[in-house]
Predict the structure.
Amino acid sequence: EVQLVESGGGLVQPGGSLRLSCGASGFTFSSVWMSWVRQAPGKGLEWVANIKKDGSEKYYMDSVKGRFTISRDNARNSLYLQMNSLRVEDTAVYFCARYGVAGSGFDFDYWGQGTLVTVSS
Amino acid sequence: QSALTQPASVSGSPGQSITISCTGTSSDVGKYNFVSWYQQNPGKAPKLMIYEVNKRPSGVSNRFSGSKSGTAASLTISGLQAEDEADYYCCSYAGSTINYVFGTGTKVIVL
């Protein structure tokens, strides 16, 4: 059974940092792209970043470029999101999501339960 | 990149069919056949319902179907059931620079 479990969320002041983790199990982690998607309270889903199977390619939404870093450790079956210079508008539940494996892979077929990041003074 | 446009809510009675629209641009929905749909219940993770415009993942009811015409995609739920009441989001691949854009979300209400 595929499982994605996020951790690391919490309350942080504006300008602070936080590192999110996502532990994966039930599939060959090193064979799939992974993503982070966030959802502000009461709002819609927003793609944040993704990373290639071997970590050689990374992509970010414009508003987090230069502040967030996505990474992975295939030996530990883990995905990470280092978030620096956090802003109030980064407040959201952060989901890790697996790229779909049934088709060409341009969708997200499994999601974690999410971890809440609150940026507030 | 702006979010894809969806109606805020769509309602229907049990057994009826409803359709949720998702309007994008020539840079996302109109350019790629990589439109997916997600169902999200309150406080839960999204669940993939449709991928690549009209394909259903294993385990998803065949009451859910997807289509696309030009820059607009749609999700149809036939034989509406109480358990279908949830938020639904469309998503489109938008190229290597922007990557993915989600829709604004639609709340499905079963009357």
